[in-house]
Design goal:
By secondary structure, this protein is mainly beta. It contains one helix and eight strands, in the order βββαβββββ. The strands form two sheets. The protein has a five-stranded antiparallel beta sheet, with no helix packed on it. A three-stranded antiparallel beta sheet has the order 6-7-8, with no helix packed on it. The termini are far apart.
Length: about 70
């Protein structure tokens, strides 16, 4: 469910999709997954992160807080 995605983190050859309830590893690359996600809801903010814009809790000193994660 796209509405549950908090962020997607690049980890070597894998992507970790972090949702509200679980973490899922996939072999998709960033280019492929960005094509699947709606551009008005998700944004690539770092070479290793795509975030859900509606899940941002705060932005401070070039860091984004989403859930328990601090994203550069």
């Amino acid at each position: 469910e796209l509405s549950e995605i908090l962020y997607i983190e690049g980890m070597s050859e894998y992507l970790r999709v972090v949702t509200m309830t679980k973490k899922v590893m996939t072999l998709l690359n960033f280019k492929s997954i960005e094509e699947l996600l709606p551009k008005n809801n998700f944004l690539r903010v770092h070479k290793s992160y795509v975030i859900a814009l509606d899940k941002i809790e705060s932005i401070e000193r070039n860091r984004i807080k989403i859930g328990d994660a601090i994203i550069p």
